[in-house]
């Protein structure tokens, strides 16, 4: 039997549920997730992850908007106090120094929220890529551990052991 016939016989003996390895699938899934978050998860047929991606992005975006609105409220009140007005919503409750500190706090919170949102976006892309990589591994139920018993030819004693068999 020549090498060519052995290769043909090997290809013919593939199981029916065999799917061909696609080396570009992880890159494609990552690209889809970069274009539209959750699209890479849909490409990988992991539909249950899509609501998680959008919930995480939605919550972090909510905190960006909320911190920006609060920052604007305190900044406007501070500007009115600098202009000499005494009718801002915080007058009598928060000092001018307190308005400055609140602006710093909400600006910092907004910046952290932006970083968290970018992190979630990147994790979405990484998840799609890794999931596409892991789908290409053959994880069937044929993996098994079998005990083995062997007799030593020279001493006549029994050798015991375990064997782990992988079929490639």
UniProtKB/TrEMBL annotation:
Domain named DUF5683: residues: 23-168
Classification via Pfam families: DUF5683
Protein name per Swiss-Prot or TrEMBL: DUF5683 domain-containing protein
Source organism: Mesonia hippocampi
């Amino acid at each position: 039997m020549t090498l060519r016939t052995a290769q043909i016989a090997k290809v013919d003996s593939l199981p029916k549920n065999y799917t061909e390895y696609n080396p570009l699938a992880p890159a494609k899934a990552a690209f889809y997730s970069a274009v539209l978050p959750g699209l890479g998860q849909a490409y990988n047929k992991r539909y249950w992850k899509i609501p998680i991606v959008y919930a995480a992005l939605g919550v972090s975006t909510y905190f960006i908007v909320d911190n920006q609105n609060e920052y604007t409220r305190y900044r406007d009140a501070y500007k009115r106090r600098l202009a000499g007005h005494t009718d801002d919503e915080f007058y009598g409750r928060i000092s001018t120094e307190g308005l400055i500190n609140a602006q710093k706090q909400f600006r910092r919170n907004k910046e952290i929220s932006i970083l968290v949102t970018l992190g979630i976006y990147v994790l979405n892309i990484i998840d799609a890529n890794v999931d596409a990589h892991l789908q290409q591994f053959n994880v069937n139920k044929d993996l098994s551990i079998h005990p083995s018993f062997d007799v030593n030819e020279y001493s006549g004693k029994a050798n015991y052991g375990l064997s782990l068999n992988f079929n490639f």
